[in-house]
Amino acid sequence: MSGTPRGGAAVGRLADLAPVEAGAVMYLRMWSDSAHSRADAASDFNLALGRGLGKSAMSTLEQICSLCAVHGRRPLIRHGLGCSCLGADESCFAQMIGAAADGQNEDAMMMAALIVRPDFAPSLTALSEQFGLALRRMTLPFQHGRVTHSTSPSVLH
What we know:
Elements: E1 10-13, H1 19-33, H2 35-49, H3 51-71, E2 85-87, H4 88-101, H5 105-115, H6 121-143
Antiparallel strand pairs: 1-2
Helix pairs in contact: 1-2, 1-4, 1-6, 2-3, 3-6, 4-5, 4-6, 5-6
């Protein structure tokens, strides 16, 4: 058995994620890191979304992280705040948030069931949609002019 838990195994780079998914991982890391990092996350939300929506986004993040901590199948393994790697658990978390924000509820529910007990997956999916939409609102100014490619959804390369 290797020293790295499977959930922490590097499966990619944070820079390769779309903005919503990358934001999900970064805010998961910030929430988990320290009270100071949580305050920084709350400040980010307030600056980008305004005080009301920012407070709501932070509350949603707190609910997601608490649900994962209390009803998780096991603890989520995270990389450090400054790490450029993307861990397996972080990837699952990011894809769940992204799928929920895109309205792909079945995919989001499947990933939620990998993270928490199945009876809590619907709640985690609903919270993921709220948080993902908040992240999308935060990233919209940065996506103007972005080139998108139209390919078959089942073809990756």
